[in-house]
Queue: 2 jobs
Job 1
Amino acid sequence: MNRTQRLSQRVIEYYADNAPVASQIMHTQSVAHFARLIAETEGLDNKTCEMMEEAAWLHDIGCPPARQKYGDSKPPHQECEGKRMVHEWLDNDPDFTAKETSWLADAVGGHHRVTEAHRLHFEPLFEADLIVNLFEGYYKPDMAQHFVNSGAVSTSTGLALFEKLFGAK
């Protein structure tokens, strides 16, 4: 098993113990799939594609502790707890360098903010989460066009997916 597979297995086991299992695992798996698809189609190198997929597997791990600590998993709470948990999980993991762990923690800690997506170059993760959240009804369908118009979707692949999946041009 490679490190991404080991990490995904850890996340699935974590959700099995801490969250509404089916919905959280399916959400996370879908975001990971779209993030990898966008990253690969954009022509990012294999290491960056791997990191994007890993960030997607980790992106919502802060939800269970946020619900426990704050009574909800609103974006600021889950991002804060998620960033902390990435460090808790990976700081001493020999499969991840300190630089990789720091980037993953920052991506998880800002994955709802387009400014952070652009600053840290995790647009595939950001766009993948938007796609899955639209499918799941977290956002109203007409928000797809807003995401395109506002520049929140900025990759060529993301724009093509938003057009094909939601009719947003």
Note: The chain has one domain: 3-121.
Job 2
Amino acid sequence: MKLIFEFLRYCLGNKVDMSGVVAGMNWQRLYEFASKQAMLGVCFDGIERLGKEYPEELKRNPIDRNLLMTWMGAAQQIRRQNMKVNGVASKLYSMLRKDGLRCCILKGQGNALMYPNPYSRNPGDVDVWIDASRERIMEYAQKKFELEDDIRLQHIETSLDGVPVELHFFPCSMNNLFYHARLQKWFKRNADLQCSNVVSLPDDAGEIAVPTAAFNVVYQLTHLYHHFFDEGIGMRQIVDYYFVVISDELLVISDELLVIRDTLQRELKHLGLWKFAGAVMYVLHEVLGLSEEKMICPMDEKRGKLLLAEILNGGNFGKHFTKYGHFTQQGMAKKYFLKIWRNMHFVRYYPAEALSEPVFRTWHFFWRIKNKK
């Protein structure tokens, strides 16, 4: 994996001597890694750069033509999908603002803006956080959208122009009720600024509001933490968080770095995220070469090795897990018990969240039944 990690750093714009990497690379294995981790577009950008910067090395270890054509087609499809999702994100944001609802687009197309090529990130659905009461959001959604058959605690699932959309009552949840309550208070305190941070999408696709880097460094860590226990996280989510941590916005405030870092670390501990943050820093360092001076907290090697193993085994949102009885590929009932079995492996690392996960999931199941339309 060492060569693949070095190649990934190169794709993200880091200065890496690629002579030895190109010579030793198994291109088929790299493609399989990129496909499993939803990184095909990002890695294809790196291959195009290699053609310009290391042409002789590529001649000595060429990529199979059929593989290259398949990869190019995937990258073009990712680009087209990004353009479509950008249009939907802008349309959704404009519609909500026109109807008097303050909101911001979470993750997704906002994260893509931080990439060297914003069209290379694998797009997903459009998540929008609406700063309004649950009742008002529900009333609005029932008038404006075709809704799914159920409702979830933190969002409503729908679609716009063929793109899946999630209308969020709040950005994210935690399994432990104590930390969940603290997190919601933190979200409410910081909501106003996130709905005011307007950015332009590429190629005049429109404008959207996106969270600030200072907000994302906590929120997206929480999102990673939640999905780690739910189904798993992949390298795409890790790369997203890498760009949050190294963003120019955080560098601008580096004159007050010690004060900012001290405040951030207190928040991480207050929200129950400290141990997981250390694990993520380890992965960012080992895989993407994040320097220690840019870390939001010290690395946690023990938990970091566990996290990295889960990422490499499970892939994007755990879709490729082979252990834990292939739990993400099972039916609802079997998946429920396999999830509990999986999360019991994490009790000694994250006891508060791991022990709370089956309790929260069971409660949420019956809550959804009760609150169906």
Note: The first helix runs from residue 2 to 11.
